[in-house]
Amino acid sequence: AQSNVNVYGLVDMNLGIIDKLSDNAGAAGGNTVRVNSGGMNTSRLGFTGSEDLGGGLKALFQLEMGIAADTGVADTPLFKRQATVGLEGRYGTLLLGRAFTTVYDFVLPYDPMGYAPQYSWAPAGSATGASKYGMTFAFDNLVKYAGKTGNLSYGASYGAGEGSSGGDGAKGAVAVNYAAGPWSAVATYERINGLPDAATGARGATTAWHLGAMYSEGKLKLQAAMRDFRQEVPGSPDLRGTLYWAGSNYKVTPAVTLAGVVYYQDVRHGAQEADPVMVVGRVRYALSRRTDLYVTAAYAKAKHGALAGLARDEAGYGNRQKSVLAGIQHRF
Amino acid sequence: AQSNVNVYGLVDMNLGIIDKLSDNAGAAGGNTVRVNSGGMNTSRLGFTGSEDLGGGLKALFQLEMGIAADTGVADTPLFKRQATVGLEGRYGTLLLGRAFTTVYDFVLPYDPMGYAPQYSWAPAGSATGASKYGMTFAFDNLVKYAGKTGNLSYGASYGAGEGSSGGDGAKGAVAVNYAAGPWSAVATYERINGLPDAATGARGATTAWHLGAMYSEGKLKLQAAMRDFRQEVPGSPDLRGTLYWAGSNYKVTPAVTLAGVVYYQDVRHGAQEADPVMVVGRVRYALSRRTDLYVTAAYAKAKHGALAGLARDEAGYGNRQKSVLAGIQHRF
Amino acid sequence: AQSNVNVYGLVDMNLGIIDKLSDNAGAAGGNTVRVNSGGMNTSRLGFTGSEDLGGGLKALFQLEMGIAADTGVADTPLFKRQATVGLEGRYGTLLLGRAFTTVYDFVLPYDPMGYAPQYSWAPAGSATGASKYGMTFAFDNLVKYAGKTGNLSYGASYGAGEGSSGGDGAKGAVAVNYAAGPWSAVATYERINGLPDAATGARGATTAWHLGAMYSEGKLKLQAAMRDFRQEVPGSPDLRGTLYWAGSNYKVTPAVTLAGVVYYQDVRHGAQEADPVMVVGRVRYALSRRTDLYVTAAYAKAKHGALAGLARDEAGYGNRQKSVLAGIQHRF
After folding, report:
1. Cβ–Cβ contacts within 10 Å for residue C136, how many?
2. Kindly report the CA angle at A306 between A300 and A309, in degrees rounded to 5?
3. Shortest CA gap C231–chain B (Å)
């Protein structure tokens, strides 16, 4: 049975210490021991498959759920990570459904932490107040195309707004990547239309673009990128911020890989800006091709007493936060 | 691993245009572009298996979920489509759990659209107001039997009401199908008991019966059926409606199949009846045994300014609605 | 595909009669016919796998959901039964995630009904009022270890409270099992810390310990155990109860197994105690290695007019309750 379906996934769990969580904000800011899901990558379970249609054409499907393995519940409802069907051929891949956007896909290799939930600000900035200026991870009602011509890869995502006016709630993302020898570079743009205000009819939007560069040769990979984020709110000044990051992956031995990054968010509105910064380092030890042990340490801080949080999904409760954790990831 | 379990399913997605949706009801009724899940069939993922017990007896199980692949969420909670265990032998198949009813199973081959979410009224009529007079798709607390004697197939479903009085909330469905050469015919009956009114103790019920006939020879299949629906509400006149449909499937080439149907709901109570009608046509192009492309066009209208909707799961916002869509279905 | 993942599970359904359910409490207490999921074991679907890391070390993962197959919905949210990753080697097994506790694992073989939802009070007592004094089935944020030295098995579970003070909400469970020839014995202890009262800062806790013994030779297995439960509520007297059970499994023929147990809850606080008792018997007929038919009969009663319920998950509505049911379980 099951010749048509590949069941795959990963479970990633760790034991960590973190300070200044919500539940001890009133106290001196002591440390909390936690068991966490998703240190390097979100725990997940998926079902995928393809069918050769002849002439170089393939049909594809993918269903993938996210799992908060520390409590056993869904990290995202059912197949909110991926639920797609499509065709792949010589002109590229066309998918319909719910999936990560073109921008998410293209920027991922440029983050030395690979969007690690513990900890990367590449997909979204620090959770501090209004400065969580990130990319839109995935679109509902998605049409996604990806193609390749020589060294150039390119793609586009469209998320139908499904309103009467074509543009309300519509989402778009485009990206190009160029690789030449050890060098590669990426450029992306996305625009997410809001819904019109009932009273004024005015419609906001967020736009974000990325630029990134990578040098990869042998044991070493150097990665740097930036994101410019702008949120247009009708009748108010735009919210703006630019995220910069630079870091590296280095394979010390075939089994041991070091990763390190600095993320810096330059908030560009308001008088006293938080301008949070985070430094993350990780040692990964491969027990096999499918199983890793890892130790991660991270430190974040914000200026002017603003709140800073390491995790993009948790609020900050102090102007600095640090954590260290040790875990295991198994892929299947 | 997994020799005992077959993982199966399908993802069906399309891009379509539809007019007069809720969110543009106030406007001139413009068109909306949508990315939809389930054009020909509800996207789904399932797990099934059987075990040979000897003597012609088999144990069976099935777990099947519905997926709204355009947003990645559940179309129905977990395994609400199918969650059964049972035995199959020379005297038929007996299942316990949650599943589609005998009526749903037996009427399905008589619908030229195969209960397509986009669009068939065979399982349930137009979503217009009170006229959504349909079959009951599935029973909780189900005991289902299906058997076959020569050309005669028969089955029955019982859904326990689980109240103190045996009949409250109880559900029953029976059906017979007779096939002779290119001809076949079906007759079904179902009765769904309500719960007693707290004050009067009176209990309503809905009943529905179907009659259908099919001619199937070579490339051509002709199908026609009717459903008589009656909802008994204690102290009020019954709500009654009769749905008629007739259509065809024709295999133009081994890869191309045309389908077309007319559904007509004869509402039989009240003064000014909506009596909605829908015409649906579909071209299906088989890329392989497991992957199809399709184009579907549908038009529905109601009388006396009543609201008509194409989809059985969406309200109507005008007295007519039309849609055209193009999609892909991949089965695994 | 899927060489790394084993898809497994079971569906267990039955048809039963039970008296004195909530919906007929006001009446003379008539019988209700029900279709139930999980007579012998909770219906479930899981994904598991392991990877040989060399040197006797293995990586493991497990994801398991519970299913209420009578309605097709989740018995527990997603993978709340098991969501773990870990390592197994010569020094034992270490898991991180969400899973059953060490106490749950170690006491299970000592219950002749194997924690059957219909019916066992071994994991939790009768649902009657305050006397549902049970073990904690599973921990979130779990670190679990299990090991074995000769005839001695031992294990420990820790569930991080994840509060600022290490102890708030923390959970611990330890157990040892000793086997010698046909005899084996188990001893366990668990402590579940509550959260501090906002006003007083005082923190309650529940503690429970088990002792059990088993004699297993050839066709016969005799099992007896007890649980002492204490709930500390700051400012109030402790709630205390001791559950005793004794029973047997006997293989009449290779296909037919009889099981019988008496559970008795000695409530040890208050003036008029319910002291509920339940007698359960079951005949299991194996159609194959993976499929069983079974008939279960159970009777529970409480003293002093207190309410008694057979099921640990349902309230009682009379001072006695009885049920008989016939079902099928298929494992895959």
Report:
1. 20
2. 35
3. 35
Residue range A221-230: average pLDDT?
97
> Per-residue pLDDT tens for C83-135?
999 999 999 999 999 999 999 999 999 999 999 999 999 999 876 555 578 99
CA angle A40–A44–A45, rounded 5-degree value: 150
CA B202 to CA B150: how far, in whole Å? Answer: 43
Chain B residues with beta carbon closer than 8 angstroms to that of A61: 11, 330, 332
- Signed CA dihedral, C196, C199, C202, C207: sign only: negative
One-letter amino acid identity for B18?
A: I
Q: How far is CA B202 from CA B136, B165, B196, in A?
A: 22, 13, 5
Residues of B in contact with C30 (CB under 8 A): 164-165
**What ipTM did this prediction achieve?**
0.94
Question: Which distant-in-sequence residues (6+ apart) come within 8 Å of B33 by Cβ?
Answer: A160, A162, A166, B15, B16, B17
- Select the residue from A8, A76, A79, A158 to test the B interface by mutation, using most B Cβ atoms within 10 A: A79
Backbone dihedral angles phi then psi of residue C157, each to the nearest 5 degrees: -125, 140
**Contact call for residues C322 and C19 (beta carbons, < 8 A):** yes
Local structure of C310: helix, strand or coil:
coil
Residue burial A140-173, b: 16+ Cβ < 10 Å; e: rest: bbbbbbbeeeeeebbbbbbbbbbbbbeeebbbbb
Per-residue pLDDT of chain B (332 residues; tens, 9 = 90+): 446 899 999 999 999 999 887 654 444 468 889 999 999 999 999 999 999 999 999 999 999 999 999 999 999 899 999 999 999 999 999 999 999 999 999 999 999 999 999 999 999 987 655 557 899 999 999 999 999 999 999 999 999 998 766 688 999 999 999 999 999 999 999 999 998 887 888 889 999 999 999 999 999 999 999 999 999 988 888 888 999 999 999 999 999 999 999 999 998 877 677 899 999 999 999 999 999 999 999 999 999 888 888 998 787 788 899 999 999 999 99
Q: How far is C319 from chain B (nearest CA, A)?
A: 18
What amino acid is encoded at B21 in this protein? L
| The two three-digit tokens of residue A197, written as one number | 């205000």
Strands (E), C196-238: 205-217, 220-232
Chains touching B by CB (3 or more pairs below 8 Å): A, C
Cross-chain Cβ contact B67/A83 below 8 Å: yes
pLDDT for A25 equals: 45
- Pair C100, C107: CB distance under 8 Å: no
- pLDDT tens figures, B304-328: 888 888 998 787 788 899 999 999 9
* Chain B CB within 8 Å of residue C17 CB: no
Q: Distance between CA B138 and CA B102 in Å, rounded?
A: 9
> What local confidence, expressed as pLDDT, does residue A234 receive?
87
In the block, tokens 């099921």 appear at: C311
Domains of chain A: 6-331 (2.40.160.10)
Q: Cβ of A273: how many Cβ atoms within 10 Å?
A: 17
Please spell the DSSP secondary structure of C133-198, one letter per residue.
Answer: -----EEEEEEEEEEEETTEEEEEEEE---SSSTTTT-EEEEEEEEEETTEEEEEEEEEEE-PPPT
CB contact under 8 A, A85 and B69: yes
Side-chain half-sphere CA neighbours of C239 within 13 A: 14
Structure tokens at B254: 């081994």
What's the rounded Cα separation, in Å, for the pair A327 and A39? Answer: 7
